[in-house]
Amino acid sequence: MTESIYLTALIVGFLGGVHCLGMCGGVVGALTFNLKPEVQLSWWRMLPYQLGYNLGRISSYALIGALFGFLGHSLTSLATFLPLQQTLQVVAGLFMVVLGLYLGGWWNGLIVIEKGGQGIWKRLAPLTQKMIPIRSIPQAWLYGLVWGWLPCGLVYSMLIMALTAGGAMEGALVMLAFGLGTLPNLMLMGTFVFFFTRLSRNLWVRRSAGALVVLMGVGQLIQAYTIEVGG
Question: Which residues contact 84 (CB under 8 A, 6 or more apart)?
Fold first, then answer.
């Protein structure tokens, strides 16, 4: 199960790229246009900055994943292990189904969960204004570190999976795998921002990604039931 949860997180991160492109497109575009003009005109000069932004974002994901993994491990240590493990896995599967419905544009219930993180973001957002314009790669990493706290239903769904991972290290690795899955889409978007914004709005692209994530969520629910039957 340990290996499969990391693979699932990686795939969901990649498929969820259609959401990342739509939600973070403005952020990526703003970051691209706030670089020095000579950097903007050369994709290979821009690449280290884009990598810095995204590695900062993924660093935040790993940190939050470690906290959730530790919390989940602590909870299962205080209760009867198997029933609570099954409950958390069922919740993770349901969240993934909801995420797939959201990505596909069939149901926007996940927006309610996203709103829960807006209070934290309002406190952190002013920090990003002080960092612009970006003049160095370490500064880009620090900006990405704050960017990782942007309210996002996709991230919150994966944190439920991190909760079931079994510990702080495992939770961090789940979110690391998820972040790496999102990396190709957002790195490419930093260079081809307008093309990828249109792609993220394509109905069939969104629905295909959403349907696959729903199926993965159903797979998580079946796996939880199998554990119960096996026990």
Answer: 75, 76
The CA-atom distances, in angstroms, between 108 and each of 30, 114, 198, 200 are 26, 10, 20, 16
Residue 164's closest CA among 69, 95, 33?
Answer: 69
Nearest of 143, 172, 173 to residue 54 by alpha carbon: 143
Q: What is the pLDDT along the chain (231 residues), one digit of tens a residue?
A: 556 789 888 988 888 766 666 556 556 666 666 666 655 556 667 778 888 888 999 999 999 999 999 998 887 766 555 566 677 777 777 777 877 787 777 877 767 766 666 667 677 777 777 777 777 888 889 888 888 887 777 888 889 889 888 899 999 999 999 999 988 877 776 555 544 555 555 667 667 767 877 887 787 677 666 655 444
Distance of CA 33 to the CA centre of its chain: 24
Indicate the pTM of the whole model. Answer: 0.73
Q: Are 46 and 40 in contact (CB under 8 A)?
A: yes
How far apart, in Å, are the Cα atoms of 99 and each of 19, 86, 104, 108, 190? 10, 20, 9, 9, 24
